[in-house]
Amino acid sequence: MHSIYKRTTAALAMSVALVVPAYAELTGELRIFLDTSNPAPRATMEAMIDRFAEQHPGLEIETTVIDREAYKTQIRNFLTADTPDVATWYAANRMKPYVEAGLFEDVSDLWAEPEIAENLASTKGAMTIDGKQWGVPYTYYQWGVYYRKDIFDELGLSEPTTWEEELANCQKIVDSGRACYTIGTKFLWTAGGWFDYLNMRTNGFDFHQQLANGEVSWEDDRVKQTFANWKQLIDMGAFIDNHQTYSWQEALPFMVNGEAAAYLMGNFAVAPLREAGLSDDQLDFYQFVAINPDVELAEDAPTDTFHIPSNASNKEAAREFLRFVVSADEQTEINNGSNLGQLPVNAKSSVDNDKFLNQGFEMLSSNSPGGVAQFWDRDAPAEMAKVSMEGFQEFMVKPDNADKILAKLERARQRIYDN
Amino acid sequence: MFPKPIEKQSRAAQISYQAMLPLALLLWLGPLLAVALFSVKPAADFTNANYWGLPSSFEGAFNYGQVFFNSDMPRYLLNSFLITIPTVIGAVALSCMTGFALGIYKFKSNLWIFFMFVAGNFVPFQILMVPVRDLTLQLGLYNTKTGLVLFHIAFQTGFCTLFMRNFIRALPFELIEAARVEGISEWRIFWYVVLPLMKPAIAALSVLIFTFIWNDYFWAVVLTQGAESQPVTAGITSFNAQFRAAYQLMSAGSIVAALPPVAMFFLMQKHFIAGLTLGAVK
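^ Those are the sequences you sent over. The predicted structure of the assembly is below.
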């Protein structure tokens, strides 16, 4: 099935190449820095760059792949000295320091082109700072509740859509001797996911972003309401015990063994769950329930991006490369199951025939009117994200300390956003 | 100083010793055994919480194949050798000379200079992190193997000098006096008289420094980044994927990374133990 598909695209690409012999002739050197250092994504990106090179034989392309973690520190160096023409990074607040330092090129002109303006609307907000766009996305993935359908069937439960249904479901699961949710908060960010959803559902996307930007007090009643909702779940025993000692991977066995019924997680959780032996009949997905009916649903969908550094030397070729990356065909190809296995950013792309990718694509393109958030540690500044996620973890262990924790976060807010 | 040999203990003590020893050994080796076991397990065993049980399928060939042919591990291993061997040569060569100077010549500040070398050992190396990083950056040696080698040589020379100086002090001084009477130049005394006598110390120190440097993680992370310069200890973390840590590959990588020092230990066991005690009792 897959090989046929691949052959047709290859044939298609070849016939296109034969009929249309390249666009404007690009020459010179194009230096691309990638952080996709793991074998599979690396091969995907290198294959994509090869296809781009075929279209532009006059271009000398040099690709450098840097270890993903090392990249995060090296980017500060290479954006200022010995700068590449194209570099990978992340959307929203994570790109803000470089945008504000003038190190990323304004690519609003690309976003004004109809091809991109019409097809990439869902991620435009994440790429926009000060009304301008500073790069293009190349992949993203959904978050949501992955659950054991067989356990739900056994208890006679159906996918909840409201907070009341959610609590009722959870009570039944707890009564059956299981936890509703597995979670491992050792590295904090998993608790950030819960906060994202609870706060966006309680107070809406705009309030959530204001909080991330330090514009609202942590002791605001609306934040307290979010924590009160969270406490309802914690108090009824919805989460597994001792979650602060597990990494997100170490929390997976609880779901595989049936000790927990669901996991609020990104789509990357599907692969290990399938490997562990859960079939697609046992595993299913639903969108996080609505809590406050007055706010629009908004989702977490972390987006990976390409940027042109301001100091790049071959910006014309770099722009052409960005156009190429977001084109519908390339998006279909690089995000399919045998490559990145994530969601294409181009609305005209087709999603791989995968149950979870299809549900995620559907959810993000039609049922997320409130907006798309990037995840707490990308939306909030790094320092605030760290302090607050420590607070979330503490809260999940000692929910009665909520007021003390919020007071601490408020002090942190005043210190961090001041300078 | 030494504990009473077990054969001379009472029968009851002997039996409990024999019973406890395998148990203690198993406990001691537990984490290592787990790593070895994990290196032949499929990824799914981790998600199934099969941490200590038998592998659900034997994936040893696949995991080690991945490590050798589908990752940067060979590159990291090569880096480790390119960092460790020059460091051993550099530190041992320098300390032979400093040890000779401090051990043979009687000059005024001899003891103070010796103390300075020794004092370096008492500096917790973590507090050097920021200055050393800045220094290598300014010298243009940041993220190079040379930078790492130079720092290791500088830092290890302190300990090596202590070791060598004490060893040379223990040599019969008459040998040197005899050579001087013959009118042999100091340089030749070092080369033809002292150095051959130092062979056991050189062997012991080389083995010791080799394992020290090979196992260094801290400086590898502070002073280098990326596959072109990092040694294998730091390279193992590259099996942390964007979303998932590939524990089975990390385990296989750790086993591979641990092989050279382990092999070194078993091949040079005699020297290694000598190395641990040589400097201690003068």
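Residues 192 and 376 of chain A are 6 Å apart (CA to CA). Chain A touches chain B at residues 37-39, 41, 66-70, 73-74, 247, 249, 252-253, 256-257, 266, 268, 271-273, 275-277 (CB under 8 Å).

Shout if you want it in another format.
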